[in-house]
Specification:
Layout lengths: L18 E7 L15 E2 L2 E2 H10 L4 E8 L4 H10 L5 E6 L4 H9 L8 E6 L7 H10 L5 E7 L4 E4 L5 E5 L5 E10 H7 L11 H7 L4 E5 L10 H13 L3
Parallel strand pairs: 1-4, 1-6, 4-5, 7-11
Antiparallel strand pairs: 2-3, 6-10, 7-10, 8-9
Amino acid sequence: MIKPKLELKYTVCQSEEKVPVIVVAAGSSLRMKGVNKQLYEIGGIPVIVRTLLAFENCDAISNIVLVVKTEDLFKIQFICEKYKLSKLTDIVCGGDSRQESVIKGFERIPQGAEKVLIHDGARPLVSDSVIKAVIDGLSKFSACCCAVKVKDTIKEVAEDLSIIKTIPRDNLVAVQTPQGVKVKEYLEAVKDTDVSLFTDDVSIMEAKGYSAGVVDGDYKNIKITTTEDLILAESFLENYND
């Protein structure tokens, strides 16, 4: 069994609200030898399609905006058309950084949307329950992410690799996506902000003083970064059900 999970202080998956999701798939895939990791197949289906299907099949999602690299636009559009993704309303070109790509996605979400999810295209094994938990988290916080407890011992090291200290891990979590934000607050937070300095969406909200929290993530919700991750994802598909 894959444990432990965080103990939440409130009930999740109660909302009947439908929200849009921005799926960001505009990365460089440097650790995959230049091959776009979104196009690798897991269980016979491209990574990006598996990711999109997770949101296509979630009844809490209204529509999907996909952000891709300019050079991949037509290739990914062709693949998506093959799988007839009815909730995929837009495919747009990304920016120079992840956060700039997210902002490009914001330009295509429905007018009047109050909340939005943001998800890594390279996390194809996200579950329905995690998606809904993040949405519900936005009833309490202005920004919310899913996370799992850190299992390894964490050490801070100096430039010469000598150990400075061991960091207690009891309250440490590893953050995943989807992350959720309230649209109005997020757009305020990115004003006059160099978003390229941030590696995730919730941290921008934190920096601007908005409330942020976490809900249970899932150890299976891995990000495909290396070829080893493809093997691990295949194993999860073969041995675990949502």
